[in-house]
Amino acid sequence: MKSAKLSAIIYAVVLSLLLLIPTLMIRYIDHDARKVWENRTLTVRPTLAEIRDNPKQEFKNFDDYLNDHIGGSFQAIKLRRKFYFDVFNATGDTYIVGKNDGALFLTAPFRQKDRDTPFQWWENVCDKLQRVGYQKAYVKRVRKSKEMITRYGADVIYTSIPSTPVLISDQFPKSAPAEYREACPKVTPENNHINEIRKLEPDTKFFYPLGAFQEKAKDPYFYPNSAYHWQGESTWVFIEEFAKEYNFTLSPKWPSGPCTYQDVPWDIGKLVGVGTTIKGCDRDLSQLGIIVDEKFQYPLNEAYAKAHPKKTHITVVKMENPHAQNDMTAIIFTNSFGPAVRQQYASLFKTTYHLRPGIINTPDMKILLRESDVLDVDLATIAIADFHYPNFLAPLE
């Protein structure tokens, strides 16, 4: 009897110590590293006042805070994924599937809390967006943003970036649902939602180089290190096709000749935490000679700034091109892939501004558009992914 009690006591002590380890480790965890690795903002601890005012929601937020900050979870998740990757050629997460010579597929927003639709992006681009009803809703929103921008005198081009489900669907892993393995190959240069949208809105310019990308996708080096294939040769191909479509002259500094294949760590933009090394293809951005002021503070007009002392500036990236072949000024609105392509885009114009509306809150974005002359440009380009119409465009509508 005493032996059983002693065993229970020892077990309780050991278990308590094990449970205490995460708590003791919290202060030593590099939360900034986790934020970068998972490409998201970690949950902030709710205050007592917030919990008191909205207990149901804030207790849920507190759970998320613990999940984000508890000691050891960061390392445990990476260890689990590495085990799955090395043993099963997968990650153990339906948001990241497959392995083709190092190629993993991201199927939905990684920080998405709704785990019922892990193949959301595949469903959107291969099914929902191919439906007439969605296309009409898409056109309705595009029409609003175009009307708002063109009143300032700028030409507008909507560009859509082909994504992996419609580019290399023949390489889907067996773990991919059959419905997407059947639907995604049906999206072709002749049969896709952007073509149908063009028919619904013939006076609006839509650029979607699906044919060129599908041709290049046969080269396994086209995807060096991102599920969005947006770091590497694809950025250069995109701008080359864009210039060809709209008669812009490529910069005399544009790198010529084939890419040099090099070893590239492959890890879906640091989302997986594990990966491999493959041959990738890229070019040297510095050759373009673009002068980038990433901390440029765009001034609002003097009258507004005087009336609102705390709203005098909004951060915008400004790029100057000393090798410009024209005197045009352009602005590009993008989501997260914008920084990867903006210098190539800026090489087509004398002055280029880059805005990521998603990281400027909507009220400030509306102030910028209303109270500044940032839309006093020759060309406004709105660059979006092909699997959805992004919320970041709402302030432009």
The strands making up the biggest β-sheet line up spatially as: 4-3-13-11-12-10-7
Which stretches are poorly predicted, pLDDT < 50 over at least 5 residues? 224-229
Report mean pLDDT, rounded to a whole number: 80
Number of domains: 2
Strand portion: 15-25%
Describe the largest sheet.
7 strands, mixed
Radius of gyration: 24 Å
Give the helix proportion (percent range): 25-40%
Total helical elements? 15
* Distance between the amino and carboxyl termini: 75 Å
Count the beta strands.
13
Order of helices and strands: HHHHHEEHHEHHHEHHEEEEHEEEHEHE
Instruction: Give the overall shape.
Output: globular
| Helix/strand/pairing category | alpha/beta
Your description of this structure?
With 397 residues, the chain is of the alpha/beta class. It has 2 domains: 2-71, no CATH class; 120-396, no CATH class. It has 15 helices and 13 strands. It has helices at residues 2-25, 31-37, 48-53, 55-69, 73-88, 120-126, 132-150, 164-167, 178-183, 193-200, 210-216, 233-245, 302-307, 338-346, 362-371; strands at 96-100, 103-106, 155-161, 205-207, 260-266, 276-282, 291-293, 297-299, 313-315, 317-320, 329-333, 351-355, 379-385. The strands form 4 sheets. The protein has a 7-stranded mixed β-sheet, with helices on both faces. A two-stranded antiparallel ribbon has the order 1-2. A hairpin with a 2-residue loop joins strand 1 (96-100) and strand 2 (103-106). Helix 7 (132-150) packs across helix 10 (193-200). The relative contact order is 0.11. Residues 224-229 have low confidence and may be disordered.
